[in-house]
């Protein structure tokens, strides 16, 4: 007559999608495909300290520092089992990371990088969908592959890098 009997007699509510097909019908077909998360980039004010945190304290495999003058950054990659972290530090005063660190003194997440199977097709389609791309042509990124960046205001406040897989 109490709570126990009410629990025993009430039927559970089960929510399901009507069918897998109806869910996928809402996804438009593209000439390109979004792939896996390649890395999450973190701007750091002190690259040596950040490298030491991941290598010496957390025990991660950490790459050597690489200068990318075209992008105005030094990069270091931290290997994780399923993706990477990219540590970014300014290279030169005009570095976009320098201006980021002026606003975020202790550093922080800068961008995410997602692989695509056809970066040119992605650019064409994204432009048609009014997503701003921060360069006219792809640049060669830290992995030696073409990359583009999508405007954060068009991506819910997140700077998104797309990299040719």
From TrEMBL:
Reaction(s) catalysed by this chain's protein: (R)-methylmalonyl-CoA = (S)-methylmalonyl-CoA
Isomerase in keyword set: yes
GO CC annotation: mitochondrion
Domain VOC intervals: 36-165
InterPro entries associated with the record: Glyas_Bleomycin-R_OHBP_Dase (IPR029068), MeMalonyl-CoA_epimerase (IPR017515), MMCE/EMCE_epimerase (IPR051785), VOC_core (IPR037523)
GO MF annotation, one: methylmalonyl-CoA epimerase activity
Record keywords, A-Z: Cobalt, Isomerase, Metal-binding
EC number: 5.1.99.1
UniProt record, GO biological process: L-methylmalonyl-CoA metabolic process
Family per record: Belongs to the methylmalonyl-CoA epimerase family.
Entry function: Methylmalonyl-CoA epimerase involved in propionyl-CoA metabolism.
The protein, known as: Methylmalonyl-CoA epimerase, mitochondrial
Organism of origin: Donacobius atricapilla
GN (gene name): Mcee
